[in-house]
Amino acid sequence: MSSYCNGGNCVQVAFAPDAVSVRDSKVPDGPMLHYSHGDWSTFVRAVKQGAYDRY
After folding, report:
1. Are 9 and 29 in contact (CB under 8 A)?
2. 46, 19, 24, 47: which is closest to 35 by C-alpha?
C-alpha cells in the first residue's frame, strides 16, 4: 500500500497481482476504484508527461 497526502487529502494505492486499487484514506470502508495494471501504467505515464497539469 502506498499513500499520498496533501493537506489531509489522502489517496491510497494498493498493488495486487490482478489489479491496482485506489481509495480515499478518510473513508477506509468506502468504495475503491480498481484498474488493470496496463491502465494504471498509462495513467501514471500521462501524469508524468503533464497531461493533467492545471495551467
Report:
1. no
2. 19
